[in-house]
Every structure is written in structure tokens, then in C-alpha cells.
Amino acid sequence: GAHMTQRIAVIPGDGIGTEVMPEGLRVLEAAATRFGLDLDFESFDWGCGHYLREGRMMPADWKERIGGHDAILFGAVGAPDRVPDHIAIWDSIITIRREFDQYVNLRPARLMPGVPSPLANRRPGDIDFLVVRENTEGEYSSLGGRMFPGTEREFVIQESVFTRTGVDRVLRFAFELAARRPGRHLTAATKSNGISITMPYWDERLQAIAGEYPEVAWDKFHIDILCAHLVQHPDRFDVIVASNLFGDILSDLDPACTGTIGIAPSANLNPERRYPSLFEPVHGSAPDIAGRGIANPVGQIWSAALMLQHLGRDVSVWQDAADAVLRAIEAVLAEGPRTPDMGGTARTADMGRAIASHVAQAR
Ligand code: NAI
Ligand code: MG
After folding, report:
1. Candidates 261, 341, 342, 345: which one to mutate for ligand 1, based on the most atoms within 8 Å of Cβ?
2. Range of the domain at 146
3. How far apart are CA 173 and CA 212, in angstroms?
4. I want to staple 238 with a disulfide (CB 3.0 to 4.6 A). Which of 185, 187, 253, 330 is the partner?
5. pTM to 2 decimals?
6. How many structural domains is the chain composed of?
């Protein structure tokens, strides 16, 4: 409920992660004050600095340290000149996603005011869909290997893994989500014409789960033509569900269609709430602009809004708080101040303060 303290583990990470996180917290504090929410923040200095000091990205007991929190707000990690990227990413964010069984990766794509789209003749409101990506299995498995390396007989195999549990739960999540949206429409990505075992299975489960949701209209497209449709008719989509690989592709295509990567948010969800879910901007640590105080904080702030929505379940004051943050983001994107990536001259904190002040005045 509104009056239960929600404990948030805050992991700013590296580079601009440490610059956008204070703005995310500033806006959350404004929302907490305005809507009477009880948020308790605890910060963890994990990331590449921690790795260089202690030899690992997170302490050995990281799971106990944050496993009891209600949510994790994450910035970004990566210091590619000092720590190899596969270590920085795998030993932090990917470990958290897997160990906390965050099997849904959710990315909203919405064309916002003041953000030019590379797609011609699209206005705010024309593009507003959600990509639901399976986040734990599918094509991204570690089953396989290499034999006869360096010889004529050399070969490699990597198996895809689609379990009934894994497929059904992500499809069900996507149908539930679609059922609660006004559009009540779900699109599934497939490739059953080329991938002849796992993708027909995905389609078969889709058909079965769809039967549980007669109120949701649905269709499916092969991933290749779906990419084309998203560029040509982005207005036709509402909720899109995809396997790990196809969802990865779609979720980079969507911020590309809706403007700058600096504003794109994401949620990594464990819908059953056995473990905390994690909310993070889509962008990385941006070493090319880090330290200058000019990063766009909207991706972090929008991710914080997704967190409010998740924490509040269906309690309306939390939804109101999340909506107020979204409206504040829209107002500031439209009227400024704007950071340089959006053609403005504002600093990270100017944009964060402006959004927080809209939230404080929300009605
Ligand atoms: P990136 O997203 O950090 O940067 C890509 C480009 O977008 C850069 O030119 C950057 O300046 C710009 N950009 C990104 N966010 C911005 C913002 N908020 N405001 C203004 N401009 C912004 O991706 P890149 O350069 O490929 O990776 C940098 C590091 O971040 C690497 O170490 C990478 O592994 C890591 N990374 C971490 C992620 C995570 O923590 N989940 C996700 C993606 C990358
Ligand atoms: Mg990607």
C-alpha cells in the first residue's frame, strides 16, 4: 500500500550512471513528498571502481545485501579503457538479471514531444508501444562447444533453449499487460519459417496462451518483416512479445525510432516478486561525455517512473505518482531545459530540477 516503506537499492555504477542517478533520486523524492509515498534509499558503490579496488564488480555477498529490497534502481556500468566490457557487464547487471530471475525485459517506446523522430511525419502520440523481451533463456544459452579447434574439422555448436515454463510465463505476462491497456493488442515476433523446431513451438504456446485471453486481439510476424513494419507503421503496435534474441533486436530498434538513447528506459522484472526487479536506463556509462555534467537524465528518471508503477502494484496513488513523473518528463522535453544531445545547452542537473519541480506541482 501507499504507506508501506519501500526499500530501494540504488546502484549508480560508472561514468554518467553516477551523474544521472542523483536526478532520478531527486525526482523520486519530489514524487514521494507530493504523493505521500514512503521510499527508503540505500546506495551501493558497485561497478568498475569496486572492481579495480577489490577485484570484483560486486561483493561476494551481493545477493544477501540487496535480495531483501523491494526494487533496484540501476545507473550504468562500464569503463572500457580500464575493465574489459565482458567482465563489467556480465559480473554485474547480467548476473543480477539471472540470479533474480528477472525474466521480463520491458521497454516502452513512445514518441515524446520535443524529440525529433528519424521516421518521417510522426508526431507525439503516434508511437506508443511496449516491447516484452524474454530475458533468461532462448537463443542466449551457454550450451554448446567447439571441437577440433584449428583443424579442417573445426566446428561450433550453440543450442537454443525454449522451456514450456519459460515461454508460457513471458507470453502470459505480455497478454496480461495487453489486457490492461486500452489497445488490447498483442503482436508476437517469430521465425517459424526458418527456425523449424523452437519457433513453431513458440507459436504453438502462443496459440495456447492466447486462448486464455479472449479479450486481447493478437497477431504474429516473422522478425524480419516485423522490423520493417515497425519502421513503416509504428502506430499499429501496442504490446510486442519476443524471444531473447528477437527482443534484443527490437528493443534497440525502438529507441532508434523514437529519438535519442538518452531518454529510453527499461525494467527487468521478476513478476512474481520472489526477487527484487531492476530498473535502468537503456544507455551505458557513456565514457565520451562522462564527467562533464551534460548527460540527459530522462532515461534514468523514466526508469524510476517504471519502478513506481511496479512498486505500487494496483494502488492508485503510486500510479498517479508514476503518471506525474511521465507528464513532467513530457513537459520538460517540450519546453526545456534540454541537454546537448537534444540540441540544448542545459546541464544534467538543470533538467532534473525542472522535472522535479513539475512533479512537486502535479495535481
Ligand atoms: P552508451 O549508451 O554508453 O553511449 C552511446 C552513445 O550515446 C555515446 O555517444 C553517448 O555519449 C551517448 N549517450 C548515451 N547515454 C546518453 C545520455 N544519457 N545523454 C546523452 N548522451 C548519451 O554505449 P557505449 O558507448 O556503447 O558503451 C559505453 C560503456 O557502457 C561500455 O562499457 C558498455 O559496455 C557500457 N554499457 C552498459 C550498459 C548497462 O550498464 N546496462 C548498457 C550499454 C552499455
Ligand atoms: Mg541490445
Report:
1. 261
2. 128-257
3. 12
4. 185
5. 0.94
6. 2
